[in-house]
Amino acid sequence: MLAERRHQLILRALRSGGPAAVTDLSEELGVSPATIRRDLVKLEEDGLLTRVHGGAVADEGDQPFAEVAEVRVPEKDAIAAHAAAMVEDGQSVLLDIGTTAFRLARQLHGRRLTVITSNLVVYEELADDDGIELVLLGGMVRREYRSLVGFLTEDNLRQLHADWVFLGTSGVRPGGQVMDTTVVEVPVKRAMIKAGAKVVLLADATKFPGQGMAKVCGPEDLDVVVTNAPVDTATRTSFEEAGVEVVVAGKVQT
């Protein structure tokens, strides 16, 4: 196996499963522990992980879309199916960046809707669907994460209104604060919230508490949270106090 491919697999394992031991990575990739140790040294030098005793942990930060898209697909599809069922034909939908929004876009085929997005993968998914009026926001291209950002994106959003906004997140704090790992995406997400009549957060179980240093919004800015597992008590209480509906696996939790 080429070193570049090993590095991709190591990072994917750390980001999806948390800290990992050298021995576990060695068995999973079918190479010697010495090879894994050299790989970890190189990845640490590149700023992609931190070595700890006996293994490594991935550093927080933005992950390439192609890597994230392959993680927790069944969970994301379950969330997407619930979200799609909330939308009625003839309505307008604003889709955020991220892989869960992409899975939601796949659920919208054949519907009569207007879809607005800064997510290039969503655009590519729906571009040939004649039943969908598709609006692609302008802006600077973030190639690794397949999104559009910047003042052009924000200006576009100030001129638009959507019945539904579906947001992604890097993490949700116990107080209900929605976080993101990338500061440049935060103004776009905030502009999306202002452009929507109803704001829905799409967050799988790993997003509680997840990651993120930049606050996007508080629970008072949300109407619904769709997830795939029960939310921890502190976060659920914060949502309840803000009047946020939490939908879990087909049932309403609050």
Automatic annotation (TrEMBL):
GO terms for molecular function: DNA binding. Gene3D superfamilies: 3.40.50.1360, Winged helix-like DNA-binding domain superfamily/Winged helix DNA-binding domain. SUPFAM superfamilies: NagB/RpiA/CoA transferase-like, Winged helix' DNA-binding domain. PROSITE patterns: HTH_DEOR_1 (PS00894), HTH_DEOR_2 (PS51000). This is DeoR/GlpR family DNA-binding transcription regulator. Signal peptide: none annotated. Keywords: DNA-binding, Transcription, Transcription regulation. InterPro entries: ArsR-like_HTH, Carb_Metab_HTH_regulators, DeoR-like_C, DeoR_HTH, NagB/RpiA_transferase-like, Tscrpt_reg_HTH_DeoR_CS, Tscrpt_reg_HTH_GntR, WH-like_DNA-bd_sf. Residues 3-58 form the HTH deoR-type domain.
